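One example given next:
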Amino acid sequence: MSRFDAISIFRAACAAVLPEGSLPAFIRKTATGFLLDDKHYSRENFNRVKVLAMGKAASSMALVTHELLDDLITDGLVVTKTGHALPGIPWPIIEAGHPVPDQNSVDAGRSVINFLSGLNEDDLLIVLTSGGASSLVSDLPANAILADLQKLFTGLLLSGANIREMNTVRKHLSIMKGGQLARLVYPATVHNFVLSDVPGDDLSTIASGPFFPDNGTFSDAADVLHKYGLYEEMPAPLLHRIEAGLEGRIADTPGEGDRIFDRVYHHLVATNRIAMEAAAREAHKLGYRVLNSSSQLEGECRFTAANIVNEISQLEIDVPTCVIAGGETTVTINGQGKGGRNQEFALSALNALLQIDTVNWPVILSGGTDGSDGPTDAAGAIVDALLVEQMWHFGLDTEPFLENNDSWHFFAALDGLLITGPTQTNVMDLVIILLQKPLSESDV
C-alpha cells in the first residue's frame, strides 16, 4: 500500500472521463451523414454546423469533435482556462480567468454572443460544455465594470456558498446564463454535450446552464446574497440589476415550457459516478477490496472530512481496502492562506486522524479531476505515514494551517501536493483512501 497506488487509482479515474474516450459514443460520422447521440442527420439538413466549446475541458472536447466530424463543421469557437489550450484545433481559442473572471472572460462573452448571433432554423449548433464556463465566459450588467463582478464573486467564493447558490446569482447578473443563450440562437437546432462537474449532474447548474431552462428567480438570487451577507456590499450596478429584477423591470430567466428550448437536446457525456467506477476497477486490479464511502463529498469541507475519518475508523479491515468518495465540498474562508478544497480536505482529514490516536496511518488522496484545486498549482494533496513522520520531524501542527486556510503551504513543505497539470476533463473531486489495518489497532 502506497501513495503511488492512490495516484494510479486517481489517474485511472480521470482517464475514464476524458473526452477522447467519452465523446465518440455520442458523436460519429456515418455513410450518409452523422449521428449526434440517437439522432441522425444529413449534412444537407443544415446550412451551417457550428461548434462552441466552453469550460476547462473545452480544448480536448473541441479537438475530439473536430477529429470526429472534420469537414462537416463550418466553424467553431473555444473558450477555456488559461494554460489549458491544446494544439491542433482549427478554430479561435480564448483563454480566460477562473475561478474569478478576468478581462479575457468578458472578451470571451462578447465573442460568444457574436459567434452565435444570426443563427436560424437551418443551422446546427454543437455545444461542448464543461465546468468552469460560468467564470470563463462572462458579461457585465449595465454600467458595471469588471472589478464589480470580481468583487462579488470573490466574496461568494470566500463565503462557503455552494455551486448551485453561486450560479443562481451568476444567472441573474447575466444576459447569457440560465437558458438565455438558447433564446439567442432560437430557432436553430442545438445539441449540448456535457461533462458534469456539479452534484446531482444538474444541467441547470453546470456552466450556469446557458442552454437549459432555469426555474430560479431574482428573488432566489437575492436570498443567496442575503444568506452570505453580500447583498448590501454589492457594487451599485449589480445591486441595481437585482433590484430591477425583483421589481419586475427585468424578466426572470426563461424556464421550462418556453418554446426556445424545443430544439435543444442535452447529452450527459461523463460524470463523477463514471470516474468512481473506474477508480474501483483500478483498485481491484491493484488487489484492494473496494468500498464506496457512505458520506458524499458535499457541505463544509472540514465536517465532511471528519465524518469520513469517523467512518473509516469503524471499519473492520482484514484485507487491503480502498474507500472511494466523490462530489464537491465547500470551504468557508476566514484566513489569508493559500489552498483549495481538496488540500483543505486532506489537511482536515489528517487533523481528524490525529484526534483519534491513529496507529496505522492510511493513505488519503483528495484531488480535483480537472487538475486544479483553488487558485493553486495543485490538484489536491496526499496524506500518508511518511508525510506524518515528516510533519512530526519538522514540528508542524495542523491547527494553525487550518485556521489560516493555508493547506497549500503545509503540504508543499512536506512533499504532499498532488500535481497533475490540466487533465482536460472535469467531473468534480475524488477521495481515495487506502487501508491495511484498522486505524487504531496496535501490533504490540
In short: The two ends are 21 Å apart (CA to CA). The mean pLDDT is 97.
